[in-house]
Amino acid sequence: TTFRADLSISEARVEGRRVFTAIFRDLTARDALQAQVETLGADLAHSNQELQTILRYAPIGIVTMSGRGRIITVNRAVSGMTGYDTADLVGRNALRFVHTDEQRQMGASFERLIGDGHGYSSSIHRIRCFDGSYANARTYNAVLAVDDVAQPILICMLQDISAELARDEELKLQRERLAHMARLTQMGEMAAGLAHELNQPLAAIANFAAAGERLSRQPTTETETLVDVFARIRSQAERAGQIVRNTRQLTRGRETQKRSCEVTASVDELLPLLKVDSRYSQISVTTECADDTWVYADAVQIEQVILNFFRNAVDAVRELAEERRQIVIRTLSDLPAVTLEVEDRGPGVS
After folding, report:
1. 69, 213, 283, 343: least surrounded by Cβ within 10 Å?
2. Structure confidence by residue, pLDDT tens digits, 153-170
């Protein structure tokens, strides 16, 4: 066999004689190690190139920053999302491209990550674009500790969710439109009862007005009698007006408006309208409502839920014997939970 060797030759004199010393060193192991190093270097260079390609063309935005928030690198997805060129971003503070209302929140998130030295955070922020608009992005932030770098490196991945939020908003509007249509349908089903209920105060107003007109022509009529007639007319007009207001409140198109509201108050607000429908079908309606039933919700949507349950109960008892046509509306408070029950004496489910 043959092998590569390192040969060193030296000359010397020993007892007047000229001698040469040759030292051979087998290079087989060193050559094998050198080949491994070269292969590893090539592999690392190839892997680094692949990694750079992946980062550059990744569909999600990737930003690396110094511990102080200065941008080190960005990939093409960030430029595509914001409209900025790479040169416009590198070297600048990343917080400058976050909406001013959210800069403090993101800065605090960076500080926590650097302080912990590990973990990640996730949040949604508005990112400023080149044209002055804002893109909604879900961000994933993590800290990378590099041994030979004094400051840690932050990495931030950005996912543009503007289209997703737009779809959610459209779905929300669609749900509100469907809820509005449901309320209109319910009012249509209750139209006969509403017409009957409105006809009563209107007829009473007409009768009291006719009576007042006759009394006013009689010279012997006392003022107190006319005042009583006018009071009765006003009372019946207010009754009719309340029915109309309750109906309009439920049927008008509107956006969701969450606020602190009381479930029992919603029952009380809706009760006159429910009794209109129940009287037309000769159904007894009673309430058993608790105090302190406050929730954070849309009061009109709560009223719609009550109305949905009530209409189901009406359908269940409408054909029963009169003594069984009973509906109970009940609220129970066990804060933070509030329970609403609509109970009927219908036949149940087979």
Report:
1. 213
2. 888 888 888 888 888 888
b or e along 292-315 (b: 16 or more beta carbons within 10 Å of the residue's beta carbon)? ebbbebbbbbbbbebbebbbebbe
Residues 197-239 pLDDT 10s: 676 677 777 777 777 777 777 777 677 777 777 887 877 777 7
Per-residue pLDDT of 26-79, as tens digits, reads 988 888 888 887 787 777 766 666 666 666 667 788 888 887 788 888 888 888
Helix (H, G, I), strand (E, B) or coil at 93: strand
Cα separation of 262 and 166, whole Å? 32
CA distance 210 to 216: 10
Tallying the residues shown for the chain, one arrives at: 350
Name 25's bridge partners. Answer: 6
193, 329, 177, 187: which is closest to 266 by C-alpha? 329
| pTM for the predicted model, two decimal places | 0.40
3-state secondary structure of 45: helix
How far apart CA 323 and CA 283 sit, in angstroms, is 9
Share of the chain above pLDDT 70, in %: 85
